[in-house]
Amino acid sequence: MKERRKIRENERNLIIFLLEKLQLNTEQYPINEDVEEYEGGKMGSISLGNPMISQYKDDLIQAKYKDSDGTEVVITLTQCAKNQLLDLDFWKVDFSKLITYPKPKDLTFVE
Question: Hey, where are the domains in the chain?
Fold first, then answer.
């Protein structure tokens, strides 16, 4: 089992922003206090589910962001088959370490 930690405020704020963009809220999609980092936190991806959560269902929303080194990062908020938050996934296109955690104002969306 991976080590769990408390969710950071910037992570929580980003999730709330993404939910609001979908006209959803934390009552519909509660945010767990404990998360697990993927890849040792290299790219910023976290698991939002509890260890017994169900399988991936689909992406709720996807956004793009340019890291401070100019490299594109794709950010995806996903849900599980039980309609609960599953992951906040970051994919930096060159697989390098995330340098600057994005603020909501830094995101772009493809409608």
Answer: 4-106
Cα separation of 8 and 78, whole Å? 18
DSSP conformational letter for 10: H
Distance separating alpha carbons of residues 6 and 108, to the nearest angstrom:
27
Residues contacting 55, CB < 8 A, separation 6+: 80, 81
Q: How far is CA 104 from each of CA 3, 10, 17, 49, 90, rounded to the nearest angstrom?
A: 27, 9, 7, 22, 14
pLDDT in tens, 3-26: 789 999 999 999 999 999 999 999
The mean pLDDT of 96-111, rounded to a whole number, is 92
pLDDT digits (tens, 9 = 90+) for 21-31: 999 999 999 99
